[in-house]
Write a structure and sequence with these properties.
Number of helices: 3
Largest sheet: none
Structural class: mainly alpha
Transmembrane segments: 9-29, 35-53
Oligomer: single chain
Order of helices and strands: HHH
Keywords: Membrane, Transmembrane, Transmembrane helix
Number of strands: 0
Radius of gyration: 15 Å
Number of domains: 1
Distance between the termini: 18 Å
Shape: elongated
Strand content: under 5%
Helix content: over 70%
Length: 61
Amino acid sequence: MKKIVDDTFLVFGMVFVFLLIASYFLPIGKIIEDGRAFLIIFFILDVVGKYLLNQKREKNK
């Protein structure tokens, strides 16, 4: 489970850096405000989905 959470934080870190760099060139403040709920839901679903996939793989072995 710890690896799943670490991988998810890695993905979100990359997205954050991309948005930080893009914010210097584009007016994306409104996009970030509108996407907060989506990002929270995506984070939770990503962690749960990876956990369930790992459980399914272990069960099939």
